[in-house]
C-alpha cells in the first residue's frame, strides 16, 4: 500500500490538494495550525468573494465539508510540524504533539500573513479608531453588523479606501503587488454603496490592477453602476481635525495638493510572507525566494515543486495569489506529488 501524503495548511490551497488526493483514493494527513480549517477566508471572516460573489463561509465552507467528509483524509487541527527528515518518497515527520508519521510526499500550503497596518503609521492606523483595514470591513459585512465607524457606531457618510497599503512600497520593504486588493477594494466599495446608498466612497490609487475580466466587473461596474469615485493620488498622511479624518496628498493627474475629510478610512492591506516561513524553511529544508515566500523550484517541469525533491508548495505560500489560483495550484501540486511517489515506489 502506498504511503500517505502530508498536506500542511488547511486554507483553499491545502483543502484543494487534500481533496484531489483523497478522491483518487490516496490517504492524506492534513495538518492545520489553527483550530479550524478554511484559511484566511474563514479565519479572517471574509464576506462575498471576488469574483464569484459567493459568501466565503459558503464557498470555502463547502470545500471544508468535502475534505472532512472524505474517509481518506485525516484532519489534525491545532497542530504543526516540528521535524522532518527523509528523501526518495520516505519522509519521517514529527508533529507538535510528538506523534510521528511516515509519508511519501509533502505539500506545503501554509499561505500568507496579512500586512499589519501599524507598519504604515503615517496613514493613521492604530492612532485613529476609524482607520480600519479591508479585513475589518469584510468582517463588518460578513457578521451582519453593517459598515459602522468603530469609534461610535455611526453610519459613515464618507469613506476613503487607500490602495496598496503594505504592497508596492519599497520604503517598508514590500515591493510586490498583492494582486487581488484592487478588485477586493472595488467589491467592498460597491458593498458599502449597496448598504449605505447615501455614503460617498472614494478609492485612492497609484494605478488600478483589476486584471483580466475583473476590469469590467469591478473597476468599471463600481464607477458606472455604483458611483464609486477614483482619485489617482500619492497620499502623504491621514490626520484628524477632531471631528473628521483628513486624508492629505497630491492628486497626481492634476498635480495639485488635495485635503479631503472622511468619516472612515480603509487600508487595502496586502499579503506578506507567512510569519512562519523561516521556521518552515528550516524544518522542511526548502529555500525562500528574495521576498520571503517559499521558492518554486521548477515552474514548468513539475508544478508546485520546491527546492526539495518530494516537497511541493501551492497557493499564497509562494507569493500573493487569488483563491482561484490557490485552488488550482493545490490540485496541480497533488498531481505532481502522485507522479513523484509513483516514480519512487
Ligand atoms: C483582505 C483580503 C481579501 C481577500 N479577498 C479575496 C477574494 O475575495 N477573492 C480571492 O480570490 N482572493 C482574496 N484574497 C486572497 C486570499 O486570501 C488568498 O488567495 C487565499 O487565502 C490563499 O489561500 P491559501 O490556502 O494559499 O492560504 P491561506 O488562506 O493563508 O491558508 C493557509 C493555511 O495554512 C495554515 N498555516 C499557516 N502556517 C502553518 C503552519 N506552520 N503549520 C500548519 N498550518 C499553517 C493557516 O492557519 C491557514 O489555515 C483576499 C486577501 C485579502 C488580504
Ligand atoms: S492589487 Fe491593486 S491595491 Fe493591491 S497591491 Fe496591486 S495595485 Fe496595489
Report on the architecture of this protein:
With 345 residues, this protein is α/β, with parallel strands linked by helices. It has two domains: 5-111 and 274-344, FAD/NAD(P)-binding domain; 117-270, FAD/NAD(P)-binding domain (3-Layer(bba) Sandwich). The chain contains eight helices and 17 strands. The strands form four sheets. The protein has a seven-stranded mixed β-sheet. Helix 1 runs parallel beside helix 3 (56-68), helix 1 crosses helix 8 (323-344) and helix 4 crosses helix 5 (181-195). The mean pLDDT is 97. The protein binds flavin-adenine dinucleotide and iron/sulfur cluster (SF4). Iron/sulfur cluster is lined by residues 163-164, 167-168, 177-179, 181-182, 209, 268, 270.
Question: What percent of residues are in strands?
Answer: 25-35%
Low-pLDDT stretches are none
Task: Please state the average pLDDT score.
Answer: 97
CATH superfamily of the largest domain: FAD/NAD(P)-binding domain
Bound ions, cofactors and other small molecules, one mention each: flavin-adenine dinucleotide, iron/sulfur cluster
Number of helices: 8
What class would the helix/strand composition place it in? alpha/beta
Overall number of strands: 17
What's the CATH topology label of the largest domain? FAD/NAD(P)-binding domain
Strand numbers in spatial order across the main sheet? 9-15-10-11-12-13-14
Radius of gyration: 22 Å
For the record, give the distance between the C-alpha atoms at the N and C termini, rounded to a whole number: 10 Å
Overall shape: elongated
Helix content: 25-40%
The CATH architecture of the largest domain comes to 3-Layer(bba) Sandwich
N-to-C series of helices and strands: EHEHHEEEEEEEHEHEHEEEEEHEH
Name of the top-level CATH class of the largest domain: Alpha Beta
- Count of distinct structural domains: 2
Main sheet attributes: strand count, strand direction, barrel closure = 7 strands, mixed
Amino acid at each position: 500500500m502506498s504511503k500517505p501524503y502530508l498536506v500542511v495548511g488547511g486554507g483553499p490551497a491545502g483543502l484543494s490538494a487534500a481533496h484531489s488526493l483523497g478522491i483518487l483514493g490516496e490517504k492524506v494527513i492534513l495538518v492545520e495550525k489553527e483550530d479550524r480549517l478554511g484559511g484566511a477566508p474563514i479565519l479572517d471572516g471574509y464576506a462575498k468573494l471576488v469574483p464569484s460573489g459567493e459568501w466565503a463561509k459558503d464557498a470555502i465552507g463547502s470545500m471544508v465539508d468535502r475534505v472532512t467528509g472524505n474517509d481518506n483524509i485525516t484532519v489534525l487541527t491545532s497542530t504543526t510540524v516540528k521535524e522532518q527528515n527523509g528523501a526518495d518518497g520516505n519522509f519521517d515527520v514529527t508533529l507538535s504533539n510528538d506523534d510521528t508519521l511516515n509519508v511519501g510526499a509533502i505539500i506545503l500550503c501554509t499561505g500568507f500573513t496579512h500586512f499589519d497596518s501599524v507598519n504604515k503609521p503615517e496613514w493613521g492606523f492604530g492612532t485613529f479608531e476609524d482607520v480600519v483595514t479591508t479585513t475589518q470591513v469584510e468582517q463588518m459585512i460578513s457578521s451582519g453588523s453593517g459598515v459602522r465607524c468603530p469609534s461610535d457606531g455611526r453610519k459613515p457618510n464618507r469613506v476613503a479606501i487607500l490602495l496598496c497599503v503594505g504592497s508596492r512600497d519599497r520604503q517598508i520593504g514590500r515591493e510586490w503587488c498583492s494582486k487581488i486588493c484592487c478588485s477586493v477594494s472595488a467589491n467592498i466599495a460597491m458593498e458599502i454603496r449597496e448598504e449605505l446608498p447615501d455614503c460617498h466612497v472614494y478609492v485612492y490609487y497609484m494605478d488600478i490592477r483589476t486584471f483580466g475580466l475583473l476590469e469590467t466587473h469591478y473597476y468599471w461596474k463600481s464607477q458606472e453602476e455604483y458611483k464609486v469615485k477614483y482619485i489617482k493620488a500619492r497620499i502623504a498622511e491621514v490626520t484628524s481635525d477632531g471631528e473628521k479624518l483628513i486624508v492629505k496628498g497630491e492628486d497626481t493627474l492634476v498635480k495639485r495638493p488635495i485635503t479631503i475629510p472622511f468619516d472612515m478610512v480603509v487600508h487595502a492591506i496586502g499579503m506578506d510572507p507567512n510569519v512562519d516561513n523561516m521556521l518552515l524553511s528550516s524544518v522542511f529544508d526548502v529555500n525562500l525566494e528574495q521576498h520571503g515566500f517559499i521558492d518554486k523550484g521548477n515552474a514548468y517541469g513539475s508544478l508546485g515543486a520546491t527546492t526539495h525533491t518530494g516537497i511541493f508548495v501551492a497557493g499564497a505560500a509562494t507569493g500573493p495569489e487569488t483563491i482561484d489560483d490557490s485552488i488550482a495550484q493545490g490540485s496541480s501540486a497533488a498531481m505532481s506529488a502522485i507522479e513523484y511517489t509513483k516514480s519512487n515506489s
